[in-house]
Amino acid sequence: xxxxxxxxxxxxxxxxxxxxxxxxxxxxxxxxxxxxxxxxxxxxxxxxxxxxxxxxxxxxxxxxxxxxxxxxxxxxxxxxxxxxxxxxxxxxxxxxxxxxxxxxxxxxxxxxxxxxxxxxxxxxxxxxxxxxxxxxxxxxxxxxxxxxxxxxxxxxxxxxxxxxxxxxxxxxxxxxxxxxxxxxxxxxxxxxxxxxxxxxxxxxxxxxxxxxxx
Amino acid sequence: xxxxxxxxxxxxxxxxxxxxxxxxxxxxxxxxxxxxxxxxxxxxxxxxxxxxxxxxxxxxxxxxxxxxxxxxxxxxxxxxxxxxxxxxxxxxxxxxxxxxxxxxxxxxxxxxxxxxxxxxxxxxxxxxxxxxxxxxxxxxxxxxxxxxxxxxxxxxxxxxxxxxxxxxxxxxxxxxxxxxxxxxxxxxxxxxxxxxxxxxxx
Lengths: 214, 202
Hints:
The complex is a heterodimer of chains A (214) and B (202). By secondary structure, chain A is mostly helical. Chain A is built from 10 helices and no strands. Residues 13-18 of chain A have low confidence and may be disordered. Chain B has a domain at 2-138. Chain B contains 9 helices and 2 strands. Chain B has a two-stranded antiparallel ribbon with strand order 1-2. Chain B is globular, with a radius of gyration of 18 Å. The A-B interface holds A 41-48, 51, 93-97, 99-101, 104, 133-136, 139-140, 143-144, 147, 186-189, 192-194, 196-197, 199-201, 203-204, 206-207 and B 21-22, 24-26, 28-29, 68-69, 72-73, 76-77, 79-80, 83-84, 98-99, 102-103, 105-108, 111, 173, 176-182, 184-186, 188-190, 192-193, 196.
């Protein structure tokens, strides 16, 4: 495979020849992933970190940054392996196993690289990285990109937007939960139950975005 | 005796959803109908039993340093199996569960049982544990799905319960995303009250 062919394969959608880049479609993907189909509040992906790390604003921002970072890298890895390795070799049924291995090794790699070259960033993101392997949002975005038959460009845009949407929901939730500490909550609903209630009300607010992305 | 204990603890006392709050993503996402909940429960239970069996069988062979990747590969293998079988024989269910079939791989309940139970207990106990946890997970999903399907669609397992008059004006929010969060809040609150009552009596 020479480099021109490789480049066209990378930029075009796998199903439709030379689709190239369409700004309108890109904007639609971004709006849809951040607001309309928000990963946490309407697709139910990444609920565990959403509840676990949303007690404080600082850790929410750290977790969000780590998720955006790993999501983008994982999409790059999974898309490349799927379209350049699994599809030509007709091994697409191995995609689930391949993706989870890519994500797990990627997280490990990122952790090692950060520890070596950027100790400050490692201290900030370090504790969140191992948690990310079992974050279903990461595997979710990889599988969704394949299901939607996005080209590499769209996949990366979708991954970044999904990560931003996740971070957005996480930060909003963290802000609300800090206030909730002071609130007078019925004892039976203290802790997790009231967090779900708040998430439900936020989810209603996000329903208002439906129809925005067309 | 301990086998029965392993079997029953997952159903109420250590229910993975209501007590341990694990496996939330599929739990909230697929409970739009009882049918989906049963399908997801069956798929997850099958994967749970198979992975617990293999992990327990190989618990002395797998080096502890690479045990998590090993577990993930074992789980992913069975998930792929379920994915293919469901696609072949139950295509409608496969379509409505969609992305959440491959996502069984990262279901915390399954990895949690492999790491927290199966790698330290004999094969039979691990299978009993997996069956119990699977039933507990399925039961929890069916409870939430019953509320959501009944309120949001007026049906239960596709049987018309509340009549066509209700179906024309259902409480649509129950079947949409917010309904899952809000109903789960009330169910968890109900279990908390139940727990407190029980504690008060003792």
